[in-house]
Specification:
The chain has a single domain (21-223), classed as NAD(P)-binding Rossmann-like Domain (Rossmann fold, 3-Layer(aba) Sandwich), CATH 3.40.50.720. Helix content is 34%, strand content 20%. The protein has eight helices and ten strands. Strand 1, helix 1 (34-45) and strand 2 (49-54) form a beta-alpha-beta unit.
Length: 234
């Protein structure tokens, strides 16, 4: 008779044993904006093949030429089709419309949403909570045949784009439904010197991660800084 004590448990997977992602093509929708452009630059500098996407292909190609490092430019649809992993870095007010228009092009793709729904008034930045709960959850609802994750929310575009800065000293909170997908995103973050991807839960927890950017904006304004995050004891 077999008892529970006779069954050997599989050893727990090392959470830092991440896949090799060096051969993946990364597309950046909104790659001509500050955040998208900075991410494209850092990933390309780390050796990743990167395609910048924009509504206007010519604008994307111009931005790619300025970055160099083998970066290519294309319209959003072509960028999505040619990429293995697609980072969504478009403005919040165009988030839903952009993803709706690219639903077919993003089928089967790993999508990383880094959009922060924010509003601004005389008191500064404040978080907006979308009907779906977060930008990432909105993306998941609009892209039912894609693998949606969330990451890269708290990065300074100024630091990302500065060629004089060798390392970006920060952690990246990574959220998603499947470990295989979040492991890929963590590995991509880890390709950028100084950066580390840390799993932070499922997409239902994305709102507070997106909302924290409003607090970082307040930190930056008070201290004239480009603040990021570090998670301790992991």
């Amino acid at each position: 008779m077999t008892t529970p004590d006779d069954v050997k448990k599989a050893p727990a997977k090392d959470p830092w044993d991440l896949p090799d992602v060096s051969g993946l093509v990364v597309g950046v929708l909104g790659g001509t904006g500050d955040q998208g452009r900075g991410l494209a630059y850092r990933l390309a500098k780390a050796g990743q093949k990167v395609i910048i996407g924009s509504r206007a292909a010519e604008r994307a190609r111009t931005a790619a030429e300025e970055l160099g490092l083998g970066v290519e430019g294309a319209d959003n649809a072509e960028c999505a089709r040619r990429s293995d992993v697609v980072i969504v870095a478009v403005p919040w007010d165009g988030h839903a419309k952009t993803l709706e228009s690219l639903r077919a092009d993003l089928v089967g793709k790993l999508v990383i949403d880094c959009v922060n729904p924010l509003g601004f008034d005389k008191q500064g930045a404040y978080a907006i909570k979308p009907e779906e709960g977060s930008a990432a959850q909105q993306a998941a609802a609009l892209l039912p045949e894609s693998r949606v994750t969330a990451a890269f929310h708290h990065l300074s575009a100024v630091l990302l784009s500065d060629p004089e800065i060798a390392e970006i000293d920060t952690d990246v909170m990574v959220l998603g439904e499947k470990r295989a997908d979040t492991d890929i995103v963590q590995a991509l973050a880890g390709r950028i010197p100084g950066m580390r991807g840390v799993f932070a839960g499922r997409l239902r927890n994305a709102h507070q991660v997106e909302a924290l950017v409003a607090n970082l904006i307040s930190v930056n304004r008070r201290y004239k800084a480009h603040a990021g995050l570090r998670v301790t004891d992991v």
